[in-house]
Amino acid sequence: FADGAFAVASVGFGIRNVADLGAGLREMARVVRPGGRVVVLEFTRPANPLFRFVYYVYFLLLLPLLGNLVSGSRENAYGYLPRSVLSFPDRGRLARKMEEAGLRQVRVLDLSLGIVTVHVGVKP
């Protein structure tokens, strides 16, 4: 796409699968016109320690177990999601990566008690 082709570029639950996060964010910023927004919706780690503990028990133990039971898989196919979320930058680091990609006024909105966040950056 041409530079500045869009008012908004967004990705939902996919940016953590991009091989080069910085390059992906720079490309999103490139195709957004000045004043436009880059929006990232992604799973994150909850900030509240008590909720994070309960969430990790579910996310790291129960979800893969139940997924494997339902699917009949013995290969832990449902272990990928938790591993990918835990290896992805936290909300603060993702906001900094967006700033490094040239975006400004980066805002972070927690959803579902911090299980998911929306990051919004503006192209100057």
| CATH architecture type of the largest domain | 3-Layer(aba) Sandwich
How many alpha or pi helices?
4
Uncertain runs with pLDDT below 50, 5 residues or more? none
Order of helices and strands: EHEHHHEE
In CATH terms, the superfamily of the largest domain is Vaccinia Virus protein VP39
What gyration radius follows from the Cα positions, in whole Å?
16 Å
* Structural domain count: 2
Structural class of the secondary structure composition? alpha+beta
β-strand percent reads: 25-35%
Write down the CATH topology of the largest domain: Rossmann fold
Beta strand count = 4
Report the CATH C-level class of the largest domain: Alpha Beta
Termini gap:
19 Å
| Main beta sheet strand tally, sense and closure | 4 strands, mixed
| Spatial strand order of the main sheet | 1-2-4-3
The percent range for helix content is 40-55%
How confident overall, as mean pLDDT?
94
Q: What sort of overall outline do the alpha carbons produce when their principal axes are compared?
A: elongated
